[in-house]
Amino acid sequence: MPPWLAPALGVALTIGLGALAWSGTALPRWLTPRERHTIAGTENAAAAAETIWTAAAGEIARARGVAPADALLGSEMTPLVTTLGEIESKRVSASPAWARVLVGELNRAGIGAGDVVGASFSGSFPALNLAVASACQALDVRLVAVSSVTASSWGATDAGYTWPEMEVRLVGGGLLKPVSAAISAGGQGDRALDLDEDGRRTARAIAERCASQLGARFLEPADFDEAIRLRLEVYDTACRRRSMAAFINVGGTEASLGLSPAILRVRNGWLERTPFDSSPTRGLVARMVERGVPVLHLLNVRDLAARWGIL
Q1: N- to C-terminal Cα distance for the chain?
Q2: Measuring CA to CA, which of 12, 43, 176, 237 is 20 to 30 A from 230?
Q3: Measured between alpha carbons, how far is 103 from 100 in angstroms, rounded to an integer?
Q4: Following DSSP, what letter does each residue of 19-69 receive, concatenated?
Q5: CB of 122 within 8 A of CB of 252?
Q6: Pairing label, strands 269-270, 295-298
Q7: pTM score, two decimals?
Q8: CA 171 to CA 174: how far, in whole Å?
Q9: What is the pLDDT of residues 12-50, one digit of tens each?
């Protein structure tokens, strides 16, 4: 290598990075300085996340007139139930320990203040939705979620206490920052097509009302392809020219998991970066992996709780 080449490359790189900064273009994530929390800082953030979760669950419990342990559990069967769920999984999810653990998981992934994290929230695990929101709030991470109304058994299945309605109540009470950038009815077709007519009408009304109250978009896609397109549009608009630091999927919305059986072979937790599905009916989880976005898949809750030491 000529002796002048290394200094010249250094000068060129410095000028190039300066031009990027001057033009307002976000640096690639690998060039952006990352500042992880120290052990003490992480513990403080974890404690803060747990406090946020506990206060929010307490507010829901008072509103419903139930014990705090039951605040984020719904009925087994209501007109808003789309699939069968396990009461044991729902009880395992209803612990503030998830908020604490998620702070550590995000911190170890290099995610911190100012980052944008996308999420897909079904109504099936409202306690985990709240844990993700609490962890991001404690870390000063901007969370951009697309939430849906419908749920599996024992989730947020009761009208008045669906996940979007819980979020509206908690935001109104100053206990939680808004996280839903868009809301849909959820379920089949992202329009609750697997419910009867009354259930669909109820889910749609809740989604539309809560979207208005939170200043979010109301999504009512015509088909699966449009459901994917609209959700990606929400995330891309929120990120603008920045890269998404991570994508967190909670539960099993059709748009997130997709219609391809390939998702059934994917383990929960942080996913490998290798694309696993190229079918046209792949969901958001597969598409985020394709984009190179770190994906945290929160499903099969009892297994994940055992691996993370929550049980």
Answers
A1: 58
A2: 176
A3: 5
A4: HHHHHTPPPPGGGS---PPPHHHHHHHHHHHHHHHHHHHHHHHHHHTS-GG
A5: yes
A6: antiparallel
A7: 0.87
A8: 5
A9: 444 444 444 444 444 434 334 444 556 667 899 999 999
